[in-house]
Amino acid sequence: MYIVSQLTARHVCGPGATTAGGAGQGDLRLAAVMTEPARPPASIRSPCVQVCIVDGESGLCLGCYRTLAEVAGWARFTDDERARLMAELPQRRDRIRPEKLGMVR
Questions:
Q1: Does the structure show a pLDDT above 50 at 44?
Q2: Is there a contact between 27 and 8 (Cβ–Cβ < 8 Å)?
Q3: For residues 96 and 53, what is the distance between their CA atoms, to the nearest angstrom?
Q4: Do the Cβ atoms of 50 and 20 come closer than 8 Å?
Q5: What is the Cα–Cα distance from 78 to 55, expressed in whole angstroms?
Q6: I need a surface site. Which of 4, 49, 74, 88 has the fewest CB within 10 A?
Q7: CA–CA separation, 24 vs 48, rounded Å?
């Protein structure tokens, strides 16, 4: 689907353009300009589980295991950087004492 907007000859051809009947003739032609509609940005996959508590000892979020710097920079990371980090997160759980995760042994 395209968005169609109407412009006068002056807008399409520049300031020296005139209408079809010449200057002062009153025959105004409109030009349709086809433009692609704006698409929303692709959503960014995130490990966030809405448990945003940072462990002072490890520096990791108890919900997603990211650091505050990683959480803050997530939207600016490239897809490759996010994928690399997502692969690392499960091993980070071992850096947090089990009792802080509710897993008393």
A1: yes
A2: no
A3: 12
A4: no
A5: 26
A6: 4
A7: 64
